[in-house]
Amino acid sequence: MSKILTTESGAPVADNQNSASAGEYGPLLIQDQQLLEKLARFNRERIPERVVHARGSGAYGYFEVTDEVSQFTRANFLAEVGRRTEVFLRFSTVAGNLGSSDAVRDPRGFALKFYTAEGNYDLVGNNTPVFFIKDPIKFPDFIHSQKRDPFTGVQEADNVWDFWAHSPASTHQITWLFGDRGIPASYRHMNGYGSHTYQWVNEAGEAFWVKYHFKTNQGIRSLDGDQSAEVLGSDADSHQRDLHQAIERGVFPSWTLYVQLMPVAEAADYRFNPFDLTKVWPHADYPLQKVGRLVLNKNPENVFADVEQSAFSPNNFVPGIGPSPDKMLQGRLFAYADAQRYRLGVNHTLLAVNAPKATEANNYGRDGLSAVNKSGRGKNYEPNSYDGPAQTDNALAAPVALNGWTGTYTTPAHTKDDDFFQAGELYRLMSAGEKTRLINNIAGFLAQVTRDDIVEKNLAHFHAADEEYGARLEAAVAKLRAGDEG
Ligand code: HEM
Choosing a second label site near 376 at 20 to 30 A (CA), which of 53, 177, 232, 319? Predict the structure, then answer.
C-alpha cells in the first residue's frame, strides 16, 4: 500500500485534486494549506543558475588506481593499485544558459569530485588542455564578450572577436575549438583535462608539477557544423539523453587517467612558463604516465538535487595535492566557493552531493541559512578544552619558493614565451582535410564581424601562428565578406 500524502509538516492531505472553495462555485479559501504550500513552493523551485557552465549533466561512479603513483604523491586515494574511490562527475557546456542546447561549439566542462577518506578532492577541468586567457582578471570580460549582449540580447560576433582581438593568447584555444574536436558528439566521447598545472608531493616531501589527462575509452567522436545543426534542430538535450540512457542500459562510460609529471627543479629553466594555461607541455618532454580508470555507473536519482546543486571548487585539495602558481588557477581558488555561497548558500557543503562520503567534516562553522546541527553539543570555538577537532600541523602541499617584487606583470619572464607558437604547431599537426575544416569554421564566424579593424587584428594573430594558416584564413574571410556585400 502506498504511503499517505502529507503536507511539508507531515499532516495528511485530504484532497490533492480540488482546491477548497466557499461554496461549489465560490472563491478559494486562504485556509487551504495544501494549495498555498504547493503554489508557494513552486514559486521557489528555481535557484540562480551557474554564471558559467549553467547547462550540464552528471553521474556517479568510481576511480580505481591501476598503476603505482605513490612515489609521486602521498594522496591517500592514489596510494595503492586497486584502491577505489567514489566520484561524482558533472559535464557542462560553458556559454549557454540552463535551458540551452547541448550540441554546440563550445568547450565542455569536466568537473570531478573524488569522495576520498581524507576529504573531497575536486578537479574542475575542461575537455580542452588549454584556455583562452592567462590572467583571472580578464575572466568576467571574456565571459561577457561570449554571452548575450546586454543591448541586443543575442550573442554578437563583434563582441566575441573583439575580445579575442585584444587577447592574442587565445589563438591556441581558438584553433582547438574550431578544429575537429570543437563539437563533441556526446559527453562520453571526449577527453577531460585538468588543464592547469597542479602540485603533487610525496611522503618524503618531494614535489612535482602535474597535469591530468582523462582519455575517453569510448573513442573520440565529434560533430561537424552540419551535423551539429541537425542535432540542434531535433534534440536540445542530446548530451543529457545520451549519458543518462547509456548508464541506464548498463553501458558505463570510462576514461583512463594519465599524468604528465615535471620535477619542480625543472620548471624555472623550462623553455616556456609551465604554469601558462594557454600552453600544453609537449609529450616528448613529459610523457603520459598511466594512473587509473574512471567509470560512471550510476545516474543521480534527482537531477536538481545532485547535478544542479553540486558545487566544485578548485581549492578543495587533499594532502599530497596542491595548487601551482598558475595565475588563472589562483583566481579560481577564490571564485568557485564564493559563487556557491551566493548560488546555494553558506551551508551548501552539507548537501548530500557535496558532503564528504568517506570521512566526515568536523569544524566550528555552525550557523547560516539552512544549517543543520552536525556537531551535537560540541563547542563552536577553537582551541578549546573540550577535546574538539584540532589541526594536524601537516601542510597539505609543499612550499613553493618565490622571489621578485609585487606588481601587475603582463608576461612571465621566460624566454620564447610567445602567444602563438603552440597555435601554429597545432595547425601544422592537422591533416589537409582538418586544416580546411578549421579554416572554414573560423572564417564562417569571423566573416560575421562588422568592423574591419576587429577582423584585421584577429587575422594578424593567425598569421603570427603560421603564415599559411593566416593567409588561407584571410582569403576565406575576404571571400565570405565579399559575398555578403554582393
Ligand atoms: C564553473 C569561474 C576558468 C572550468 C565556474 C563558476 C565560476 C567560474 C564562478 C560557477 C561555479 C558555481 O556556481 O558552482 C571561473 C573563473 C575562471 C574560470 C573566475 C578564470 C579565472 C575556468 C577554467 C576551467 C573552468 C580554466 C577549466 C580548466 C569550469 C567548470 C565549471 C566552472 C567545469 C562547472 C563546474 C560544475 O560543473 O559545477 N567557473 N572559471 N573554469 N568552471 Fe570556471
Answer: 319
Q: Which helix (H) or strand (E) holds 215?
A: strand 207-216
Is 53 marked active-site?
yes
Q: How many domains does the chain have?
A: 3
Q: Which of 49, 52, 191, 303 to mutate to test the pocket of ligand 1 (most atoms within 8 A of CB)?
A: 52
φ, ψ dihedrals at 28, nearest 5°: -85, 160
- Tell me the pLDDT band of 180, cut-offs 50, 70 and 90: very high
Q: Are residues 315 and 240 in the same domain?
A: yes
Q: What is the CATH number of the domain that holds 290?
A: 2.40.180.10
Best substitution site from 90, 92, 147, 336 to test ligand 1's pocket, by max atoms within 8 Å of Cβ? 336
Q: What is the pTM of this model?
A: 0.97
Amino acid at 16: N
Strand residue runs (E) in 6-70: 56-65
Which ligand 1 atom lies nearest to the CA of residue 135? 21
| Distance in Å, CA 113 to ligand 1 centroid | 14
Backbone angles phi, psi at 207, to 5 degrees: -110, 150
302 is catalytic: no
CATH code, domain carrying 5: 4.10.91.20
Enclosing domain of residue 257: 56-131+185-350
Q: Find the 12 Cα to ligand 1 centroid distance in Å.
A: 44
206 and 230 fall within a common domain = yes
Residues in the chain: 486
Helix boundaries (H) for 88-237:
139-146, 157-165, 171-177, 225-234
Q: Strand pairing of 289-298 and 56-65?
A: antiparallel
For residue 446, the model assigns a pLDDT of 98
Q: Phi first, then psi: what are they for 84, rounded to 5°?
A: -110, 140
325-345 per-position pLDDT tens digit: 999 999 999 999 999 999 999
